[in-house]
Amino acid sequence: MLQKWLPLVLGFCISSACAIAQPVMDTLHLPLQSAEKMFLDSNLQLLAQRYNIDANQALVIQARLWPNPNFSVGHTLYSGALRQFFPTGANDETTIGLSQLILLAGKRNKQIKLAQENVHLTEYQFFDLLRTLKYTLRTDFYQIYYLQQSALVYNDEIKALTQIVGAFAEQQGKGYISEKEVVRIKAQLYSFQSEYSQLINQITTTESELRLVLQIKPHFFIDPVVDSNALAKLDPAQYALNTLIDSAYHNRTDLQIARTNMKINQLNYNYQKSLAVPDLSLSLGYDEAGSFLTGYYGVGASIDLPFFNRNQGNIKNARIQIASAEVTQRSTQATVDENVTTSLQKAFAQEKLFRTIDPRFFADFQRLMHEMLVNYEKRNISILEFLDFYDSYKQNTLQLNTIGFNRVSAFEDINYYTGTNFFN
């Protein structure tokens, strides 16, 4: 019953901690699948990255365009013999020219390939952002869930100690309870309240990050709905290490980015070499009366002579960039191998620790806690025994929740480092 009302209690505590005038937060009960759909539909960072893809696709269109032809026309401005501006008839001179730049050495095709690879790079950057944000979403989701379970413990203990302090306050004046014992109980209560406040702050911070990922309004408190049976069935032995590494090679977007950067640098090197070849300009011209004959029509061609500038510096720079990109790719691949292997080892370690816990341990501890409270109220046990058990109960429950979160987090690491949702 208490777990049912915990989100409302936490929402009230969080809003009250921020400002007295702030209204109680609305609770949003959210399964993981619904959270992921909401994330894909509304995350603004993903939307911005999608625009980058569209922008780079527009640059492919631009790269396909041919250079525009150049048209020129000239006419006599002033005739000194006639002392006349813009003379006409036999005394004027008109020239017309039309030229077209012809790109040589395959420059246009190389520009198109470069633009296309930049589109691929932007797409991989989009999916890498998606992978990172999805990892943040899922880890925050489970962290909030397990922090809430820990908050349950504090809520139980604070409620019980508050009742005891209230009862003792009534009996203290009658001489039944020593002042020292009352102070000791109050000190323990204040300690729990302080730790509970820190836990609420941690939940608040994680909730804020999750709301930003999901683009949810600040007045909502997200209550993760978790299928604990599905979590218990997760098994790191389900997939072999080679399967995970192969998946990472195909799906890790940071590795795809490194490979694409390698292709881009190779294409840029080829393009820079092509720029060493001068472009050809073809022209047609008409001269009305300025040549040795009237009504002159001519055709011409021009090209730069590559004596001084053969793009040597840019070519050398592109060649060095290829070497740098190759080293980066090898480093990224080594990182992928290490990430996947380490994450699987951690998953096995966390799974082994998780399986050593008796499923009845938590229920037994809760039952004993209630019995200890009753016995202490009846004065059957001392205050030291009572507080020692309460502290042990709290510490062990927090450890169980930490073990549970670390286990789930290890599986999420495998998903993140392989770029594949092997475990859901």
Can I get a quick summary?
By secondary structure, the chain is α+β, with helices and mostly antiparallel strands.
Named CATH architecture of the largest domain: Up-down Bundle
Number of domains: 2
Average predicted local confidence, pLDDT: 87
The helix/strand order is: HEHHEEEEHHEHHHEEHHH
Unreliable runs, pLDDT <50, ≥5 residues? Answer: 1-6, 11-22
CATH topology label of the largest domain: Outer membrane efflux proteins (OEP)
Strand arrangement in the largest pleated sheet:
2-5-7-8
The CATH class assignment of the largest domain is: Mainly Alpha
What is the end-to-end distance?
Answer: 28 Å
Number of helices: 11
Taking all Cα atoms into account, the compactness measure Rg is 37 Å
CATH H-level superfamily title of the largest domain = Outer membrane efflux proteins (OEP)
Strand fraction band?
A: 5-15%
Strand count, sense and barrel status of the largest sheet are: 4 strands, antiparallel
Question: How would you classify the helix and strand content by structural class?
Answer: alpha+beta
Q: Tell me roughly what share of residues is in helical segments.
A: 55-70%
How many strands? 8
Overall shape: it is elongated
Provide key terms for this protein:
424 residues, alpha+beta, Outer membrane efflux proteins (OEP), 2 domains, elongated
Describe the structure.
Helix 1 crosses helix 4 and helix 8 (253-275) runs antiparallel to helix 9 (312-355). Mean pLDDT is 87; it is low at 1-6 and 11-22. Helix content is 68%, strand content 11%. It has helices at 2-18, 32-42, 44-64, 107-172, 179-214, 228-232, 241-251, 253-275, 312-355, 361-377, 383-418, and strands at 26-31, 70-75, 78-79, 84-85, 94-102, 220-225, 280-287, 296-303. The radius of gyration is 37 Å and the shape is elongated. The chain is an alpha+beta fold and 424 residues long. The longest helix is centred in the N-terminal third of the chain and has 66 residues, at 107-172. It folds into two domains: 31-67 and 105-276 and 314-418, Outer membrane efflux proteins (OEP); 70-102 and 278-310.
